[in-house]
Each structure stands twice: as C-alpha cells, then as structure tokens.
Amino acid sequence: MNKTNLTMMCDFYELTMANGYLEAGMEDKICYFDVFFRNIPDKAGFAIFAGLEQIVDYIKNLHFTDEDIEYLKKQKLFSNAFLNYLKDFKFNGDIYSVKEGTPIFPNEPVMTVRAKAIEAQFIETFILSNVNHQSLIATKTNRIVRTAGSKGISEFGARRAHGPEAATLGARAAYIAGVVGTSNTLTGRLFGVPVSGTMGHSWVQMFDSEYEAFKKYCEIYPDASVILVDTYNVLQSGVPNAIKVFNEVLKPLGKRPLGIRIDSGDIAYLSKSARKMLDAAGYSDCKIVASNSLDEYIIRELISQGAKIDLYGVGERLITSKSAPVFGGVYKLVAIEKDSEIIPKIKVSENVDKITTPGFKQVYRIFDNKTNKALADVITLSDEVIPENEAYEIFDPNSPWKRKTLTNFTVKTLLTPIFRNGKCVYQVPSIVEIRNRCQKEIDKLWDTVLRFENPHKYYVDLSQKLWDLKNDMLYEYSLK
C-alpha cells in the first residue's frame, strides 16, 4: 500500500523459529502450509476471498534492511549466522492460491505455500493478516449489497475503521464485493475505485443559515449537488431549503440536483415524506441517500417499511464487520519433503474442527452443465484429476455413508500458481476484473446457499484417496 518495508510485520516467534531452523540445520527443508478458515462470519452460506494482490506485492519486495537486522541484533536472541542469513533473504518458493473474488468455504485450502522452512514459516503473519481482513470485509459487504438489491451501496467507513490501512484496504475489498464506490480518496487513488462525497454537518453550521450553506454548495458544485438535509430539521427546513436552492441556483443553469442525504432520525418515515416533497416540486429524479450506522439488517427493515431510498451509505458496520469481526483464517503445516518424497503431516486435536487435512492438495469446483450452478467442492491430493467424461461419486467426509453420484458436469481447479521458485507467474487483474469475477462466481451459487437465514451448507468433500489418507493417519496416531 505504501513504501514502508513490511517485512518485519511478522509475529516474533516466526523469527525465533527461523533462527532455530538454521541452528538445527533445517533451513533447507521443504514444507507445505495451507491457508484455510473454519467458520463463515454471520453464519452465512459462503465467504469471499480477497487480499491476494497485497500478498503478491509483499512477496516481491520481501527483504531485510540493515536497520531491521540491527534491531534484531539488539534483541540478543539471534545467532550471527542467522543475522547474516537475513542480509540476502528473499522468497524462493511456490505459492498457489484461489483467485480474488472467488466464493470460498470452510476447511478448504484457499492458499498453499511450498518453500524452505524459514521462508514458508516467516510469511505466515502477513498472509493471514491480509486474507483475514480483506476476506472478512468482502464477505460482510456482499451481504449488505445483496440486501439492497438494485439500490446501490457506497462505502463510508474510513473514519471508523481500525486505522488508515484497514480503512483503505477494507474499501478495496468492499468494492470487490459490490459497493458502487467509496468515500476513501486514497482507495480511489491507489486502486481506481470510484470515489464520492458531499458535505458534512460542519459545512452547514459554518454559515449563518442552512439556506446559505446549500446555496453556496450548489453554486460551487452545480454538477455534483447532493445536499445533507438533517442538520436541523429534515422536513421543516432541510428539504424545503434544498428545493428552494435547486430552483434558484440549479434550474436557471439547466442543471438537475443529484440528491439529498439523510443521516439521522426515522429514516423510513423521513425518506417517504421527503420523496413526496421532492416529487411535488418537480424533482422526481433527485435521489435520496441514507446513512447512519446501517447494515444488512437495518436495510432489510427499511425496505420492508417502504423507505424511499436510492442509495445507502454504509460505514462502521461494514468496514469493521461489526456483527462478526473475526474471519479466523489459519496457516497450518500439511506436508514436508524428504528425499523428494512428499510426507503428509496432520495436526490432531480433541476438538474435531481443529484436526487438519494432510498432504499437498488441489481444490476442484464442480458445476452442473444444465444449470451452470456449483454443485460441490472436492479437495484432492495434488496428483489427482477429476474426470469430466464419467460419473464421479462425492461424499460427506464427516458422514461418509452420505454419497451422491454426479454426471454431466464441468470441473474447475481453484488453486492457481502465483509464484514458482520465487518468481511471480500470475498477472494480477484489475480491480474491475476482480469485482466482475466475484459477481459472476456468486451467480453460480444456488439461492439456498445465498439466503441469509439458515443457508444451505455447501458441499466441501474429500476425495476417497485423501479421506483414506487422513483416516489412516488418525488411526496411526491413536495407537501411539
């Protein structure tokens, strides 16, 4: 996002482990780590993957400065050999990832890192930070966007975000997930997201009267006149003064007002009353914008009450994903290489949800050829191929007796090579391309998965070969 060297944005234990790997002679051991998440925020039917572009930039620029190394030296924990090692440190491994904007589901790898132990371990925190944050905001945003239907959502959350970077990258993720624009100018400058803004209450208060404030604004911005009408009284002064200024300033210029904004009060009632007043004055094309701590639930209520709102400005509850503020992505070792052979690794826990799926894997999405809808995701070992020209049986990995045979389908691989041997082999798409992919892929999900209340659980299955491997390893560990 900026010129700051983000290499040191890591958990300290990644450095102590890296030093330990070097001291133990394990620095060249090839490891495989999976990034995945366990639960969908808000108990929704799917999440949206975002944050890959920033990870690509990070990996390309991964290096330690002399100042970084001097700081670590002062900690008096690291060997001279390790500090010297960091002078020429860079990422030389492979990364595979789901493309940004893709719907994703629990427990399937959305990214796999294959690299030497120190390299693979070191990048964990940055990867998780980006995937967790941007995927969280994208997922929350799309719920809000889908609630509003044909009415647009503009992201208004910069001042309530958890810092400038969260505000800027959060607005990026929100645009991927469907907002029409953002109030965050930096997001617009960096990523090409459309920006918009009107006036604050302070503008109105700066003038001797509300009328003077509106008049001056329309004189300065005759082609971008959206008036904030709730500083004093929406219906008694705000809307009447706005209409008066539209008549006196814009109409003689042959201009039309873009809209009014309501930021407080009974928005459903006020919007219906304001709509009548604007229509009666000949401004049926003047949009009504609503803001003030909105989210998908409040928007749904406003729609059910017949509110006359054309655009919603959504801030704090979007940019912080207030109802479910943690995405919960994790980074787990799933395999190592020994004498060029891939050795699967598994984490065993009394908490069944925390048992990992071992091995170097691929994820396939299966689409029904008749409807073009996604039927299921299947996690396989990396050398497996799902044939499209013959029947294929899927099953619930937690209840393997629940099986279904699929025919007449198309298969798509989800994990795409991003880096090979440290070189980026992926062309990062424009944000508009990512946004379009997001909508296209969401359209391929069944309505039962999209619904807000009790969504259908999308099938994420294991191949028979992978299921056998996992259960054999669990049985082996149970005997120890």
If you had to describe this structure to a student in words, what would you say it looks like?
It is a single chain. It is built from 17 helices and 21 strands. It has 480 residues and is α/β, with parallel strands linked by helices. The chain folds into two domains: 246 residues, nicotinate phosphoribosyltransferase; 182 residues, TIM Barrel. It has a seven-stranded antiparallel beta sheet. A six-stranded parallel beta sheet has the order 7-6-11-10-9-8. Helix 13 links the parallel strand 10 and strand 11. Helix 3 runs antiparallel to helix 4, helix 6 crosses helix 7 and helix 6 runs parallel beside helix 13. The longest helix has 25 residues. It is globular. It starts with 11 loop residues before the first helix and ends with a helix.
Short description:
The protein is an alpha/beta fold. The chain contains 17 helices and 21 strands.
Shape category: globular
The share of residues in extended strands comes to 15-25%
Helix content: 25-40%
pLDDT below 50 for ≥5 consecutive residues: which ranges?
Answer: none
Radius of gyration: 26 Å
Question: Pairing-aware structural class of the strands and helices?
Answer: alpha/beta
Number of strands: 21
Q: What order do the strands of the largest sheet run in, or round the barrel if closed? A: 13-12-1-5-3-19-20
For the record, the count of structural domains works out to 2
Q: Report how far apart the termini are.
A: 48 Å
Q: DSSP helix count?
A: 17
Please tell me the CATH architecture of the largest domain by its name: Alpha-Beta Barrel
Q: Mean pLDDT across all residues, rounded?
A: 96
**What is the CATH C level class of the largest domain, in words?**
Alpha Beta
Any idea what the CATH superfamily of the largest domain is called?
Answer: nicotinate phosphoribosyltransferase
- Output the CATH topology of the largest domain: nicotinate phosphoribosyltransferase
Give the biggest beta sheet: 7 strands, antiparallel
